[in-house]
Structures are given as C-alpha cells and as structure tokens.
Amino acid sequence: MIIRKAEFKCSSSKMSQCPEEEMREFAFIGRSNVGKSSLINMLTGRNSLAKVSGTPGKTKLINHFIINDEWALVDLPGYGYARTSKAAREEFSSLIRFYVTKRENLHCLFVLIDSRLEPQKIDLSFLDFLGENGIPFAIAFTKADKLSQAQINRNIKAFKTKLLEKWEELPACFVTSSETAKGKEELLDFISEMLITPVP
C-alpha cells in the first residue's frame, strides 16, 4: 500500500465525539513512551501528522486521521504512565476500554510493544483483556534499531514465549523502527489485505 493522502479528522475526549463515518478503523495503542506517534508518522510518511512528545502520557484524546479517503488511522491514548494521576489513569482506561470494546468501526488494533524490554506485566494484561473481549489485534514491536539484532530477537522471542503460556496461537507480529522504516511495507500490506477482507 502507498499512502498518498493523510489528513487529520478530529480529536475526541469521549466516544460520542468520534466520527460517524463507516470507514474501517485501524487503531494504535501502547504503553506511554513506546514510540506510537513516531511509528504513525513513519507509516504515513508525514513527519508531524501525530505529535511526538518527549513527555510520556501526552496523548489524552482519541485522534482520527483519514488515509487515502479509504480508511481511518486512530491514535489512542497510551496506558500505564505512572506520573499520570490515578483519576486521569482511570479516565483514560475507561475511554480506551469503551473504544476497543464498543467501536463497531474498529477493524484491527495494533498493540505496540517496546522491543528493548523484557515482557511487561501491563502489556500482557492488556493483551489478555483484548483476548477476553474478542478484540482483533496485531502486535508491532517498536524501536528495533536501538539494540543489536540478536538482542531484539531474544526479547521478541521471550515475549512470544510468555504469550504462549496463555494463548494457543500468536497474533500477527511486526518488527518496526521509526528511524529506519523497518516493518513499514509489511504493516501497510497487512492493513491493505484487511481492507479487502469482507466483514464477517
């Protein structure tokens, strides 16, 4: 897939504000500071489409972008940032929960995992939540340029092994780098294939 056009549509602080169009939505979510905005900008080829911040937890809204006038890319708030107040964490969590479980347009949720880290409990818990609610998702391991290939491979293998303790099979997984554009074609091709797949 080639992204020819990427336009900001709107930001929503609650579900009722989300667009009413029936476009298929592909949403991106992950722990705060996982590199979500950078990945979105890399995928779309727009350096400032999603705002990149050095401060984790800055994305507090659901941001919709229309891609090629065909589908919507959705930037969801990050989860698990300790410096966010408890009340705010609960607010973001309810917003995230409501979107991923109730949004009929959601076609696939990309969960971003920092490939530099050992399996994190909060990521595993979130994936369990998705499984329990039957949410279609894929995994995008980020920041693959930050360590040696051998280290990245070990970390990803450890994460997959941890998942298989509970899951019978793994979801689609992608290894990405916003710096080198690694994984861009594979991820966009995956979205392209899903766009032509009939909705069950």
TrEMBL record:
A Pfam family per the record: MMR_HSR1
Annotated protein name in UniProt: Probable GTP-binding protein EngB
Superkingdom of origin: Bacteria
Known role: Necessary for normal cell division and for the maintenance of normal septation.
Alphabetized PANTHER family for the sequence: ENGB-TYPE G DOMAIN-CONTAINING PROTEIN, MSS1/TRME-RELATED GTP-BINDING PROTEIN
Assigned protein family: Belongs to the TRAFAC class TrmE-Era-EngA-EngB-Septin-like GTPase superfamily. EngB GTPase family.
Metal-binding keyword on record: yes
Keywords from the named record: Cell cycle, Cell division, GTP-binding, Magnesium, Metal-binding, Nucleotide-binding, Septation
Organism: Mucinivorans hirudinis
Essential cofactor(s): Mg(2+)
Gene that encodes it: engB
Any Gene Ontology biological process: division septum assembly
